[in-house]
Structure formats: C-alpha cells, structure tokens
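Show me any protein, fold above all:
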Amino acid sequence: MANRYTLTEKIREKYTPIVQEFIQKLEDSNPKDTDILLEVDFSDTELNPYTLGELLEELGYERGDQQENGWQLNFWIPYTKQGCKAIQVDGTGITFELKLMEKN
C-alpha cells in the first residue's frame, strides 16, 4: 500500500497542470472584475493538505503558519511566492474537503 503522504510522480503529473492553470487564472484575474474568489476543489482526490503543499513548494511557493479551529477540524494554510498573489489550502477533516483558493 502506498503512503498517502508521499507526492508520487503519478500524482504530481496528474495535478501539477491543474494547479498551474489555477495559478495562471488567478494571476490574470482583475479583482475589479469580480467579487468571487477563485478556487479549485480537490476534495475526494489523491491529494491531501500535505501533498498539495509539497506540490506548491515545488512550484516556488513558501508555506505560512497553519491556522485551524480545533474541534471542527477546519484548516487554512497560506502560501506565498515573490511577485505572485497569495493563495491558501483550505479544508475540513470532518467531510474531507480540500480546496486551493485565492487568499482573501
């Protein structure tokens, strides 16, 4: 059985283009054009907060301090990259929601 906290080459190849497309859309977006936050839903995929974070770090992003609200198992992990808009990994452990989104 594979370790679910390992970013395998198969997972990397499958999700890197999706993450890069999201980042490109975010960088090209104009906040004046919409009030809707951009996000991509990775719930129920092979990704988890750890492997998604590793993928972002491979793309040059730096991880910030994780925030959580305890008993509800919600979490927010900010990522930044010089010259790029801030993003965050957002989710909940109760229903296994995992999203990559624009940091507001």
Notes: The first strand starts at residue 39 and ends at 41. The chain is about 30% helix and 25% strand.
